[in-house]
Write a structure and sequence with these properties.
Elements lengths: L2 H5 L6 H9 L4 E5 L3 H10 L3 E4 L3 H4 L11 H17 L5 E5 L9 H14 L4 E3 L7 H9 L4 E6 L5 H4 L9 H16 L4 E5 L3 H10 L4 E4 L7 E4 L1 H4 L17 H17 L11
Parallel strand pairs: 1-2, 1-8, 2-3, 3-4, 4-5, 5-6, 6-7, 7-8
Bound molecules: 5,10-methenyl-6,7,8-trihydrofolic acid, 3-methyl-2-oxobutanoic acid and magnesium ion.
Subunit structure: Homodecamer; pentamer of dimers.
Pathway: Cofactor biosynthesis; (R)-pantothenate biosynthesis; (R)-pantoate from 3-methyl-2-oxobutanoate: step 1/2
GO molecular function, one term: methyltransferase activity
Length: 277
Amino acid sequence: MNRRVQHKAAHVTTRRLLDMKQGKEKISVLTAYDYTMARILDRAGVDVILVGDSASNVFAGHSTTLPITIEEMIYHAKAVVKGVQDESNRAMVVVDMPFMSYQISGDEALRNAGKIMKEHECDALKLEGGMIIADTVKRITDVGIPVMGHLGLMPQSIYKYGSYKVRAEEEREADQLLEDARALEESGAFAVVLEKIPSALAAEVTRSLTIPTIGIGAGVECDGQVLVINDILGLNREFHPRFVRQYADLNTVIEDAVKSYVHDVRERSFPSADESY
Ligand SMILES: Nc1nc(=O)c2c([nH]1)NC[C@@H]1CN(c3ccc(C(=O)N[C@@H](CCC(=O)O)C(=O)O)cc3)CN21
Ligand SMILES: CC(C)C(=O)C(=O)O
Ligand SMILES: [Mg+2]
């Protein structure tokens, strides 16, 4: 028996996520945008890696997710998929479809979904929206591409709302969100992200659906949780919404390391004889 194969944990599939919900095992999701980080996340055992369009913010420095292009998302996704493949190849890789790559028509959405899927071996795509994109979700899933939904705070619609405030606090909006979630499930979505909505509503959606819910600022009763990797590592100085738990202060770690390097170069203590040829 090939021991290497035997020791490799099974790649996380949409089926596995459904089983996890049924078995009440929580699903952990983090974003990644590059090869090095994807390898660390896969090694650490995260279930799903999301190549988020938040790359527009944290990688490219834009103030919203709107400017990132399909080509840029593919570039990040290729690096992440390669990282997972070179590590344990356990984590599922989901890629955000960027703003305006799926909203114009079902045809265009399908063409772009296929384009993203063909460039690398990611496992699924994520789209923002509910009933409005239900037909599109059905068309994409019908050809065999798994789709993750995204409801509540939808950053691609930020200019429609004008703020990043909590969503669906009023009963009418909450009812709409519940209907949107059901529409996504009926259209074939395998999971749905719930962003910045009241915990009680997220719990109700979670109970109402067969597919898993993945929360970000949506309480502990979601079937899983997602956060942006830069936020949990403390790489982001300015971004501190209360749903982020910071697990490290890499900002300080990196700044101190770079300061030491700059100092050593200036003082001529780097490189030493041992570090030279
Ligand atoms: N680094 C990063 N982390 C994220 O979670 C993230 C991104 N970028 N970019 C894309 C979207 C945007 N997201 C956001 C952005 C802002 C808030 C937020 O709560 N902002 C304010 C509150 C604004 C208000 O209440 O009016 C805050 O408290 O920081 C939440 C999610 C989540 N996503
Ligand atoms: C915050 C998550 C859910 C996301 O969509 C992103 O990182 O783009
Ligand atoms: Mg996103």
